[in-house]
Each structure stands twice: as structure tokens, then as C-alpha cells.
Design a protein that fits this description.
The protein has a domain of 201 residues: Rossmann fold. It has 10 helices and 13 strands.
């Protein structure tokens, strides 16, 4: 089976490409003209641009303009739409022309908005930032395209924050804090939140690829997360334990936390929605596909922490 991967040189794409190779598939990296080659890409077949798209069986579309904490307001919505809607649709149409039977699109939990709560696929999305809005628009455009044809099936995964070896963003910030045993004032952050270990995401993607094609709906939208939701304070404690640090987490109210971190960008970023409940219902996908996340959150944090330690050891 030939599996085309956009964003193959990225964090999630690298894990997926390796998993496809281990599963006996032929991963093909779709590269933009300005793409930089990595060691992983040298082991894969590549396709430079949509015009040169090879015949493929399945497409996993990971490439996107991702959410940035420093980007706010509506000013960047145009750029998000170019990358997350226009380019996504160009890839989807090229994939259909290349004979693809399955198109997997990675969306985000941010389509549900920023309000605290528990979100299911049956709820009404209400994104509040350009990233979430562009992803929801891409979902709608893809759904319309695939519902109008009989060649291929569309699967959309809505996911929370993904962590694992090679990740960046807020998880990397937490790892950096834990490395020095910093007692973050988040003891009061006890509301549950959904997270997703990268290998659990890869397992879900491969489950769909291996599923009986004829039993798939034309369009399926699914929430994916680790089996157990944990609070932000629990996550930080797991990270500290994995790094061999025993820290005390002071119980500070959200307003005081924001006050303490007002002059430190990394703390402000980590503090965003840190104290609120933000969970996804994921039983629908598990029931439909007979799937369970193969890795616990503890295992995922341990693997991520091991990678982080080796990364810093190699810098010495």
C-alpha cells in the first residue's frame, strides 16, 4: 500500500512515516518546492509538488499552519486559510486524481472553542481563533467534496495537544521547567484535560488505514485522545518523576498565576487555559473501530522524557 504523507518531515509525520515502514507500507512524502530534506526523508520515496503526485492508495494530510500563542486576533486568518483550507483542498483534489481511496485529515480540538467543558463530535463547533476557524472551514470543505463522490472515504481526526519524542511547544516548555525541578504554582490546576501521545495517534491512523474500506462512512469525524484524561498538575508531576525530580506545586489561583507570569512569555503560554476542564469524548471512535490507545499517559511521558534527556546529553 502506498501512503502519501504531507508534513512527513514534521513531528507527527516523522513518527507516521517510520510506523508505515514497519507495517510494510510504502510511505511517500509530499514535499513543497522549498522543503528541506531530513535524514528520514532520504529513506522514503518523495514527490515534489502536487503536479508530480504519484498514484497512491491513502493520503494522510498533516501539513498545516499551526497555532502560535503570539499570534492573536483576526489579522492572520487569511494566512491560516491559505495554508489550512486552500492548500488542504488542493491536496485533496490531487489525491482523488491520483486514485486515492482514503483521505485522513488531522484537525484540532480548537474547533470546539476555548470554553471549559467536555466536547463530543455531536456538539456544535465554535472556534474562537484563526487556527481553529481555518481548520473547521477545511473540515466543511473536505466533507462537501468527499460526500459528492464515490471514489474515496474521508476520515477527520480532532485531536488535543500531542506530545512525544521530538515535540515542541508547551510540552517542551514543561520539560525544560521540570529538568531544573522548578515548582510551578499549578497545584490548583486539578481540572481534567485531554492529551494525546503521538504513538497513540499513529495507532489510530493505522487502524483506519487497515480497516475494511467498504465499512467506512463517506465522511467520518472522530475525537482521539489518550485513554485517561489528567489535569495539568498531574501531567507536570509525571514529567518531573520521569526526569527524577521531586517537586512541590504551590496552589495558586489562576489570577495570581497570570500575575506572576505576566513578564515571562513561556509561562504565559503554558498558563493559557491551564486551570480549566477541557476534555474530549472519544468513546465513539473506540467503539466503532474496536480500538484502544496502546500506550498509557505514563508510558508516553516516560518515552518523551527519555528523548528530552538524550537530546540535552548530546548537546554537551
Amino acid at each position: 500500500m502506498k501512503v502519501l504523507i504531507t508534513g512527513a518531515s514534521g513531528f507527527i509525520g516523522g513518527h507516521l512515516a517510520k510506523a508505515c515502514l514497519l507495517a510494510g507500507y510504502m510511505p511517500i512524502a509530499l514535499l513543497r518546492l522549498d522543503s528541506t530534506y531530513s535524514e528520514l526523508l532520504e529513506t522514503m520515496e518523495t514527490c515534489q509538488g502536487l503536479e508530480a503526485l504519484l498514484p497512491v492508495d491513502a493520503v494522510v494530510h498533516l501539513a498545516a499552519r499551526v497555532h502560535q500563542m503570539k499570534e492573536g486576533g483576526q489579522g492572520s486568518l487569511t494566512e491560516f486559510r491559505k495554508a489550512n483550507v486552500d492548500y488542504t483542498m488542493a491536496v485533496a483534489k490531487a489525491a482523488l486524481s491520483a486514485g486515492a481511496k482514503l483521505f485522513i485529515f488531522l484537525s484540532t480540538m480548537k474547533v470546539y472553542g476555548e470554553s471549559a467543558g467536555v466536547y463530543s463530535e455531536k456538539g456544535t463547533p465554535c472556534p474562537s481563533d484563526p487556527y481553529g476557524k481555518s481548520k473547521l472551514e477545511a473540515e466543511a470543505a473536505l466533507s462537501e467534496l468527499f460526500a459528492s463522490q464515490d471514489q474515496a472515504k474521508l476520515v477527520i481526526f480532532r485531536i488535543p495537544m500531542v506530545y512525544g519524542p521530538g515535540n515542541k511547544g508547551n510540552m517542551l516548555t514543561l520539560l525544560s521547567f521540570a529538568r531544573f525541578g522548578l515548582p510551578l504554582p499549578i497545584g490548583a490546576a486539578t481540572e481534567k484535560r485531554s492529551f494525546l501521545y503521538v504513538e497513540n495517534l499513529i495507532s489510530a491512523v493505522l487502524t483506519v488505514i487497515q480497516y475494511d474500506y467498504f465499512k467506512l462512512d463517506k465522511v467520518g469525524i472522530w475525537n482521539i485522545a489518550d485513554e485517561k484524561d489528567i489535569s495539568s498538575s498531574e501531567l507536570y508531576r509525571l514529567i518531573c518523576q520521569a526526569l527524577g525530580k521531586n517537586v512541590f506545586l504551590p496552589r495558586v489561583s489562576p489570577s495570581l498565576f497570570s500575575f506572576f507570569g505576566r513578564g515571562i512569555r513561556s509561562i504565559r503560554a503554558v498558563g493559557s487555559r491551564l486551570f480549566d476542564q477541557y476534555q474530549m469524548e472519544t468513546h465513539s471512535f473506540r467503539k466503532r473501530f474496536g480500538w484502544r490507545p496502546p500506550y498509557s499517559c505514563q508510558s508516553g511521558v516516560d518515552q518523551t522524557s527519555d528523548w528530552f534527556l538524550k537530546k540535552h546529553e548530546n548537546k554537551r
